[in-house]
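Subject: for your reference before the review

Hello V.,

The reviewers asked for a structural picture of the protein, and I figured it would be easier to keep everything in one thread rather than splitting it across files. Below is the amino acid sequence we used in the manuscript, unchanged from the supplementary table.
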Amino acid sequence: MCRNIKTLFNFEPPATELEIRDAALQFVRKLSGFTVPSKANEAAFERAVEEVAASARAMIGALVTNAEPRNREVEAEKAKARSLARFGTQA
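And here is what came back from the structure prediction:
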């Protein structure tokens, strides 16, 4: 599951709220072992997603770099090339 969490820092345009929440959701899913929690665990699961998203948002906002922002399209092309080299097919 966590293989799907993408780097969100230092991109132009910056990471969206949805991207941050999706990464938090993947992280909480991995920790809990639940793709979808039971009704009994739903509130704790959603609270954890919101708390992780808030922490991620704060961290991304506090990080600094002198590097130029990365381009999403260029990074996607690099990922496709890595996939092609590794698996012989494009993802």
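For the response letter, the relevant points are probably these. The two ends are 16 Å apart (CA to CA). Residues 2-87 form one domain.

Happy to draft the paragraph if you're swamped.

O.
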